[in-house]
Each structure stands twice: as structure tokens, then as C-alpha cells.
Amino acid sequence: MITPEGRHVDAYIFGRSYQEVERGDYGSVVAALDANDPDWRQRELIVMPSHVASEDIDDIKAMIAAAHAAGFDAIAAPIVYWDEHSDNRADLAKALVLDWDVRWTVPNPWHREPEGQLWALGNDLWSRISRTLTQ
Fold this sequence. Notes:
Shape: globular
Number of helices: 5
Number of strands: 6
Largest sheet: 2 strands, parallel
Distance between the termini: 17 Å
Structural class: alpha/beta
């Protein structure tokens, strides 16, 4: 991956949440990391998305423990959705009280015309990651 400033980042990015694929295929966070990228401990960045429901909290704790054991900071980057009637902040609460090193909030307001919304969210998150890695 390349930052907006042109710096190469040695990264491994999981394309789906741990619960959707990796948990069933490998049974544990570390086994999934090892199977997908045996050199993950030497990378500069690992992105492993997760669900945040109550039944997923043990998975998230395992992600934080694996990150810390490998010398990484564990960063929570919740996508906070809201519209004029509701938001998902309460759903995120149990995951956000865990032992994260950093918590970033990625706002995701409802849009009447959502074209480009996913692209914009990804760009915003990558810009934040890039700034953090290059400081």
C-alpha cells in the first residue's frame, strides 16, 4: 500500500470480517493470521475487521491480545452510522471499552444519494492511517 505522501506500507488487509470467514476456517485469530500471512508479525500494519455484537467480544479480545503480543498497537476504528431516527453507538459500546491503545471514530451518516459513500469512508480511514504511520 502507498500513503498519499508516496510512502510504501508493508501491510496485510483482511477483505472480510474475522467472523464472516476466518473464524470458521481457522478457529482462532492467531491461526487465521498465521494461515493468511505467516510473516504478519513483521508487517507494519494489519487490518482485521470484526463484528461488534456481544457474541464477538471474545474474538475482539483475542485480536487485541495477538496485536499486543506481536508488538502492535491495537486500534479500534468503529464505523458510526446514524440517521435522523437512530445510530449504532450502543452496539459498539461493549467492544470499545476493551483494552484498545487508540480509538478512532469513523462517521458514516445516512445519505439520500449514497454513491461514493463507501469510497469516501475508505479514503478517510486510509488518510488517517497514513498520517499516523508517517508521523
